[in-house]
Automatic annotation (TrEMBL):
InterPro entries hit by this protein: Glyco_trans_2-like, Nucleotide-diphossugar_trans
Domain Glycosyltransferase 2-like positions: 9-156
Protein name from the UniProt record: Glycosyltransferase family 2 protein
PANTHER family reported in the protein's UniProt record: GLYCOSYLTRANSFERASE, TRANSFERASE, PUTATIVE-RELATED
Species: Winogradskyella litoriviva
Amino acid sequence: MSDAKIPISLITTFYNEEDLLSRCLDSVANQTFKNFEFILIDDGSTDKSLKIAEKFLPKFKHVKLISTENSGHAEARNVGLNNVTGTYVTFLDADDTLVEHMMLEFYNKIQEQNTDLIISDFKSVDDVGANELTTKWNAAFLKIKYTEELAHLMYTEKIQETIWAKLFKTEIAKQISFNKGLWFDDRPFLIEFLFLSKTVDFIHKKLVVNYANRASITRRILEKKRIEDVYYLFNVELDIVERCNQNSFYKKSVFKNTLDFFIITYLIQIIDYDKIGNLKEVQGSFQRVFGKFKKDIKKESITFNFKKTVQIYLLSLPKYIGWSNVNLLFRLFKKKSIQHIKKLKDVD
């Protein structure tokens, strides 16, 4: 690939990130490979973030800084995609960093072969970078050559569904939009890209450092937005599967994955029970939204194994025997899962 065309574009969106943005931009400025396009989208910040970004502009060979009215990171990412000129595009959250040879590693890989998607391993650490956390890097990746195989793995072994630490062919990525207002907007973008593309390759190196932000979705106190987004994501994902003419395995997998999301959300309700200010409203939202999901299961004639069927039954019980009694049942049967979520949320 000739340097006449910029090989890689990097998109970073930010909103009020004055405390962490310099750390992120430093890591981009210190890349050993310089011939990439850096697109910064200021999503209407009201703090000093924009001024910080402006000070860094001279450090980059190809850079665009675009300011928009605050509309959420999904819309900001769409603005970024619309302005990409590189052959490939990757993303970096404003609170994360790149390893200094990340761009070089990705560039060398696309010189070797013209693949649609490249995925690297990453390092996940706590807020201050003191403790390294477990990631979902899978040894099976190194045997995979086609995105169809990876899509299947996504629903069977739960791969990391973020858009960072991944390099997307731009001509395919531009066919996809991020869903406005959806907290979990990485997942549908990645799924649709897997269905639209053909080939994938992997770099078995940790090239991105992800910091477990205390404001992340997983670590927030449970609120209605998360519950509603589980169902929103379900409909978005089901639409993608149907539009891309995928087989019945994927359709059923979307239902199974959504049930898992509901289970996790219910367990977060148990963990956050004493911290949720509007507990009855949140619990009522869960019952209402899960009721819609149950109707969809019946409408589509989706069948589950015994374990999943029992889980659906248990999630329906609070209406009849009360939340406290069902919470007790989940504490008994989902003890390990609760401990795992507590660890992710960094609570005792």
